[in-house]
Design brief:
Number of domains: 2
Strand order of the largest sheet: 2-8-7-6-5-3-4
Structural class: alpha/beta
Strand content: 5-15%
CATH architecture of the largest domain: 3-Layer(aba) Sandwich
CATH class of the largest domain: Alpha Beta
Shape: globular
Largest sheet: 7 strands, mixed
CATH superfamily of the largest domain: Type I PLP-dependent aspartate aminotransferase-like (Major domain)
Order of helices and strands: HEHHEHEHEEHEEEHHHEEHEEH
Number of helices: 11
Number of strands: 12
Amino acid sequence: MSKYINDKIASIEAYVPGEQPRDKKYVKLNTNECPFPPSPYAMRLARQAAGGLNLYSDPECGALVSVAAEYFGVKKENVLFTNGSDEVLNFAFIAFCDKDTPAVFPDITYGFYPVFADLNGVPYREIPLKSDLSVDPKDYYAAGGTVFLANPNAPTGRALSIDEIEGIVLNNPNNVVVVDEAYVDFGDVESALSLINKYDNILVTRTFSKSRSLAGARLGMGFASENLIAALKKVKYSTNPYNVNSMTAAAGVGAILDEEYFRNNVKVIRENRDYLTKKLSECGFEVYPSSANFVLASSKAITGKDYYLALKERGVLVRYFDKPRLQSCVRITVGTKEEIDALIAATMDIREAKK
């Protein structure tokens, strides 16, 4: 570590992204990307936008905001686009938390929350999940800080109903509740988006990285009351006003408008999730119920770490979290049928090798 780094940065335990290895071709089921390419319409619009890359992108993302506002049924003033949903989440830590307003989130959830808290000097409180790895909504009533909830949660895949989310919002009238809906398109749970018209203390975040096949483009969005969006925009314009590049913004327009392509991909992933769950169960794994494009699975026959390493040796990547309550588990992205079959074949090979 450099001697010039300040104490705050030196002490932070940085977020560890999923592996993106280049040493050989893997069956990649570790970072919850969509297994299908972007919409052809999104790619065409991105190519057209490439001709204007000599100019700065539109800091307001005007065309994208207009399309999104109409599609999601909100006002333009209720929408903010960012460089991935991670950026809007970071903006929320900056805008709605401080030393007197801590962050509150589950002990098992998206790993960036504690990193954002540490980076911004925000104290935080982690609330343990229940024994079945679900969130108890009442644990977040009168939380005494800004609440961050991934719904569906990661890496568990469990989701709260909109009524449960509304209960949390109602019981935190003096604080913001951030609902991170990165995976909401894959479940039967209703989005909390409708609540932004009823309450001025809820921020809903979404990403184009999962269901809309644009992980490499980096595009996220936030929905909230006009006042909350204005606060987030103040952070944006104080850091990086051109945060969404022109090609990404154009691809985002195409990804929203190509509704049939989006719906079909989501349908296939949901079907494949059922297929993956069935196949893993047949191999003796316990698979937690999931409303996301991944499953959390464990086996009494092999530890999570050993399973992850054995799969990697066989060219299959999954995600292992070296945390006390997750050490028996791996998180597996729902891929194509062919990728799932490769995972299961590798799993059977591992089981034979252990005999």
